[in-house]
Every structure is written in C-alpha cells, then in structure tokens.
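Give me the fold.
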Amino acid sequence: MEKENYIQEEHYLNAKKRIKEIKAFYVHLIVNLVSIPIIVAVNLVFSPGFHWFWFAVVGIALATFFHWLGVFGLNNKRIRQWEDKKIKELMNEQSNFKSN
C-alpha cells in the first residue's frame, strides 16, 4: 500500500512539473508575440532606413524554438526516463551512504 501511494505521489509530482513547464512555454510564447510588434514599431519609427528588427525577431524565434524543443521535443520521453533513472540512482546511493 505504501509503495502504491509513493508511486501515485511521484506521478502527481511529475504531472505537476510538466504542467509548470508547459505553462512557462506558453507565457514565453505570449510575451514574444506581444514584444515582436513593439520591436518592429520602434524600429520603423526611430530608424526606418535600417531594419534591425530582423535580428531581434530571428533571436526571439530561435529562443522560442529551443524552448519548445525542451518542452515538447521529439526525444522528450527519453530525456525524462534518463532523469528518473538518474534520480533513483542518486537516491539509492544516498540511502546506501546513510546506512553505512
């Protein structure tokens, strides 16, 4: 019974962590969608002869893509399995160290 409760709590904490990551991505996306038109407007008003806003747009797009890749990426399941395995390994090492 105790092991089932532990597993259920672990699943709950993993789901909560995942929701936090997804929420952070969408906040990042919304901030970017709001800031890009502002950057373009500032560029076109103050220095219309040189369109430097493209550098900012490309940088923002790359950052958003890498954030998306980290949250929804193709190998995301494999990474999470590695993280879980590593956490269990470190917990076992710590419990073995305490018992000695």
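The CA atoms of residues 34 and 60 lie 12 Å apart.
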